[in-house]
Specification:
single chain, alpha+beta, Phosphorylase Kinase, domain 1, Transferase(Phosphotransferase), domain 1, 2 domains, three-stranded antiparallel β-sheet, globular, binds adenosine-5'-diphosphate, binds magnesium ion
Length: 318
């Protein structure tokens, strides 16, 4: 790590810090995520290699829409440092900087790239479980899925059960404490993100899990025994009663979206996870079909002057 000069923090949380850093020899600018030992709790090299972010990214290498992990270091004190390609910012920052609404071609481009990355993840057996605008990284018109710290390997027959995803992007089955959710939780999050790109504000900003379900019911209409039978069982187990709403409908909440965009968001936001499309199916939706050229969504930023290929110096190359 002494080869790097730490320039400025890019993100900070309870996990540690993400730094913009410069490689002293090559001049390459990178992003280094340093996880505190309380977070990584590493006691062995095996544990380090099995960290969700290290294991998943070493298996998902070289996809243009997934952030590139260049190197990973484990400190003697149990800390972990992950060296990523440097990206200009996250999608939330780009939405906040964007003064006017994105047009539909721009939204289509971003969504297309997220789905390509997600399709690669899911097909390789990984579920992201924390998709949200802050975890989507952007550079010169390219969007990459980042922060795979909550990612989990999909093992047939072994369901996920931990409570995951940031609340506003959390699928209803997770909100209801399902012990059998799957990669469709990522598809729900894509639907919410897509709506947010149209409105430039979150679609479902609940302050707690109950309010989150309340929001979902008021937008989509409450689920029924017919639309989502498992939902009634989950609600019963959680001793929760859905509020009864017919739902104002997505076109009311996202007035600037075209009919095909509304159709796609509607299918992504199906109460029943089985009715949500896979990433590969979503990519075939008419929202994307007929768009021969996927235009650039985000204007080119100032070119990085220090962007060279980093040779494998120290640590492990993953
Ligand atoms: P956390 O586990 O805290 O959510 P993230 O991986 O999401 O960590 O990183 C936190 C923030 O740091 C991101 O939202 C983004 O703004 C910034 N960041 C992360 N990785 C990069 C990167 N490769 N290039 C530029 N900024 C990054
Ligand atoms: Mg994050």
């Amino acid at each position: 790590m002494e080869n790097y000069c730490f320039l400025k923090p890019l993100g900070e949380g309870s996990f540690g810090v993400v730094w913009k850093a410069l490689h002293k020899v090559t001049g390459e600018i990178v992003a280094i995520k340093q996880l505190k030992n309380e977070v990584s709790r590493l006691t062995s090299w095996e544990e380090f290699l099995q960290m969700a972010e290290v294991e998943s990214l070493s298996q998902l290498k070289n996809h243009p829409n997934i952030v590139n992990l260049k190197q990973a270091f484990m400190g003697f004190d149990g800390t972990a440092s992950l060296v990523f390609e440097f990206m200009e910012g996250n999608l939330l920052q780009f939405m906040q900087l964007h003064k006017k609404r994105f047009n539909e071609a721009e939204i289509r481009n971003v969504c297309h790239q997220i789905l390509l990355g997600l399709d690669h993840m899911h097909k390789n057996g990984w579920c992201h479980r924390d998709l949200k605008p802050e975890n989507l990284l952007v550079k010169q018109g390219v969007v990459k899925i980042g922060d795979l710290g909550s990612a989990k390997k999909i093992q047939p027959g072994i369901p996920f059960k931990d409570y995951v995803t940031t609340r506003w992007y959390r699928a209803p089955e997770v909100l209801l404490g399902s012990h059998f959710y799957d990669s469709k939780v990522d598809m729900w999050a894509v639907g919410v993100i897509l709506a947010e790109m149209f409105n430039l504000r979150p679609l479902l900003p609940g302050q707690n899990a109950e309010q989150q379900l309340f929001w979902i019911c008021s937008v989509l209409g409450s689920p029924t025994m017919k639309s989502w039978p498992e939902g009634q069982i989950l609600a019963g187990q959680a001793e929760y009663q859905f509020p009864q709403f017919s739902g104002s409908g997505l076109s009311f909440f996202i007035p600037s979206a075209s009919e095909s965009a509304i159709q796609l968001i509607t299918s992504l936001l199906s109460w029943d996870p089985a009715k949500r499309p896979t990433a590969a199916e979503a990519l075939k939706h008419p929202f994307f079909v007929g768009s021969h050229r996927i235009p650039r969504a985000i204007p080119r930023a100032i070119p990085e002057r220090h962007n060279h290929i980093l040779p494998n110096i120290g640590g492990i190359l993953v």
